[in-house]
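Lab notebook, bench 4. The sequencing result for the construct came back, and we need a structural model before the next group meeting so we can plan mutations. Quick request posted to the team channel:

Model the 3D structure of this chain.
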Amino acid sequence: MSRRPGLTFYILLALALGALVGWLWPEVGRQLQVLATIFIRLVMMIIAPLIFSTLVVGIAGSGELKKLGAMAVKTVAYFLILTAVALALSFAIGNWLQPGQGIAPPTEAGAAPSALPEGSFWVRLFPTSVVDAMARGDVIQIVLFSVVFAVAVSASGARGRPVLEFCRSLADVMFKFTDMVMWAAPVGVFGAAAAMVGTHGLKVGEAFLRLTLGVYLGLALMLFVLYALLCLTFRIPLLAFYQAIREPFTIAFATTSSAAALPRAMEVMENFGVHRRVVAFVLPTGTAFNLAGSAFFIGVAGLFVVQAFGIPLAAGDQLVLFGTLFVASKGVTNVPRSSLVALAAGLSSFGVAPEVVAASFGLLLGIDPILDMPRTGVNTAGNCLAAALVARWQGSFRPQPSQN
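Done. Here's the predicted structure in token form:
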């Protein structure tokens, strides 16, 4: 009996068909953006209740609050180290390929970057209202509220048990809800691909060939070399891991939205053998704090701007730029072009002239859609791997017998 194609097959088919429609009928392709927008909105309405319910069950249901602190420390430390490694790789490739050489920058400033959110990153961690945070889809604020709420439920003892049972039922319902919404993914991917090709064409990366090559090469090294080495080092079943993440990766790649892939990523990693408590904490936190693919892009793009505008950099200057972009990369959010905004903020902090920052933003804006796809996919894959690694370190990774 032949096996029916899975969701990944239909997503890839939709990606190809969408690109074809956008190429043959650009105006029709641009109008199909509405399909991608509807799909992403369907996913966004899942995220808040899914994160809230799974975190409360994972933390309050286990009764092991001490493990939460240790897990948080390990998670954040891993995120910071991975960001540093991604940036180091980006500087190595950027200095090797010299992607900005030969690019004639515009004589007039391009579109000015959007303003960063008000307040420091640390202040923005704390919501003024959980309802507002859920309405905006601010993942990190939802995570923080859910963790504190779960601790309160656990501390309430018997009185908190009905709340815990409600959250347990809600989590089961939300996973079923996720399954239903994910079958709409091919439609959303079809619309996203048609709109992107219809707007930018198939040759969107031709004028920036070295930059495109550098980004795709580096992200491929992260996905298939760095992540594979981490799997082998910490005894994560390698082939089973890549098989598990193929659907979340494809959704993130096609929609350029880590948030769109988050519900499916949470589901597949729990099925992979990662404890629900770890999945519920690491994946949402990583979606807001561990965008390693975006960090790599910011590093290569930063060197691209410096080289294109002929700004000389000594070895010491590169170290300063590295540190500046490392901090700026933590300002990347799950909104379109946020990597460019973080890059602009980093370049400004480094001391690049405002007119150069604005011009570089405009220079990169046209090529960004084709570079956004792989970096978003690598972001999602890296967060899935983080969940498996933290679960291994916590002793709560239970792979299926076929994965050993």
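The longest helix spans residues 65-97.
Will bring this to the meeting.
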